[in-house]
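User:
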Amino acid sequence: MAPPILSLKDIDLHWGADPVLDKLEMHIGANERLCLVGRNGTGKSTLLKLVAGLIEADGGERWVQPGVHIAYLPQEPDAGAYATLKDYIVDGLPEDERDQSYRADVLIEDLQVKGEADPKTASGGEMRRAALARTLIGEPDLLLLDEPTNHMDIATIEWLEGYLKAWRGAMVLISHDRAFLNNLATACLWLDRGKIRRLDDGFDKFEAWQDKVYEEEAESLKKLDKFIKEETRWSVEGISARRTRNQGRMRRLQSLRQERRSVIKATGQVNISLAGADKSGTRVVEAKGISKAFEGRSLFDDFSVRINRGDRVGIIGPNGAGKSTLLKVLIGELEPDTGTVIHGTNLETLVIDQKRADLKDDMTITDVLTGGRGEWVHIGNETKHIMSYLKDFLFDPSVANTPVSALSGGERNRLLIAKNFARPSNLMVLDEPTNDLDMDTLDLLQEVLADYKGTILLVSHDRDFLDRVVTSSIVMEGDGTAVEYAGGYTDYLAQRKNIAASSSLETKQKGKVVSIKDAQQKANKKKANKLSYKDQRELDHLPAEVESLSMEIDQMEAELSDPALYTKDPDRFTMLSKSIEAKRGELDAKELRWLELEELKESLEG
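Assistant: Predicted structure:
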């Protein structure tokens, strides 16, 4: 561990009579990349503010190495006192460097902030990017980032990852974005019941370590009296039990993606089989040649897709690409400029409102879930007692009569999910559902979506969540194109890479669009009426390469079919799931190249 630049020792902090931090101790070393994790309501943001020096503890000692510069990104930045966003960003410079306002211009360009915009009229996403620029501009020794990826698109998140990977200072990250933490954190600080536990390993090892800690605690609880055991059992056992159930769901998701792959052929434009190969057999939405423009800019053009019952479709793209517009066109809230959208019969659509408009502060949890009518929750044709339903959503039954006003942000999100999933529907529409959710609530949402028997349309920037939930992804690149790919975000990246490398793609040559295949054929015909030595050698080796890849894929599929693999070795399960998609893409590319070379050989010899 690097020598500390900041230390907390014996820190106590209370909210009223309740302890938030209890004799807490933590140390941050120079150049360390730490993630701070814990359930919502445990005090992560409060602890980060204390580290930043914005609040004081009730007791204990905070020590900062002299000369260390700290910068803090809050969850809800406030730039109301500034005339422009650039003024707000420049104010993040140390006082003796305020004359170097030009440094803001680089970050403004990289983060696509409108520097002259009035902060009062800035969108949530732009305000977030401006606040991030303000935090980074002073090049601090210690960065404290509270949910830096909230309201940001994937392109901006990936830019931030690259920026932080090159960062030479220390950082502490609070984030629900697993992919973000996997790519950056080298150690984990777990805030649990007022104390910090430290794992000197990446975030990808955190959940297994957390389970081990819980198992050890459960064993030690046997030595305590029954009251204490019951008091903590619901929170300690719930997460592990849910994770065990998710093992089967991940295998089922792989099966669903394989089915979806059979009706999608991503070759630069969408070719959808209209025969309806899915086992569910019922059409939900069918769009044919739809287009939509806004203020003269094409959002999507000549896009076609068929969505069948049980499909789980993610919509991905940069901010402003038109994701929400496409979603509204698909569900019939907006009319396309051209083309048609046909909906299936007996659709009951549920759009989840993440603004929490349905939650009133003076209502109790029971009132929210039952509509103020008794103690039973009606979920479609099923009825559950409120106490049982609360446990399903990680609530201790003792809080049934707690008012909404007393709930933390994470608890309100869980309550909103519980309320919405009690409504009857067979088409669920979620627009950025993961914003402001903690990881436990994300796990819960993933579990509920896995159990959902209807169709899901999902807009999200959370790469890991997309990988865990969707069977196919509609990707909007921001240039008016929309293409459907089988699988989640990682699958899309692998397929896009293979498509870019494929010789069937078109390239610009002397101002004209010429296919690589045609260009190669013309070049070869000029040289001789036979394949070049290089092409012939490639053709000679391709059959063996295709056979080898096919065998490798068969072996992976056999290993993934083992029901116990996810339990025994979750890391290998994840690695195999990602690798097999890349191998399939590589196989497709080699088979296509083999076919092209055979056709070229026949045309030359003919």
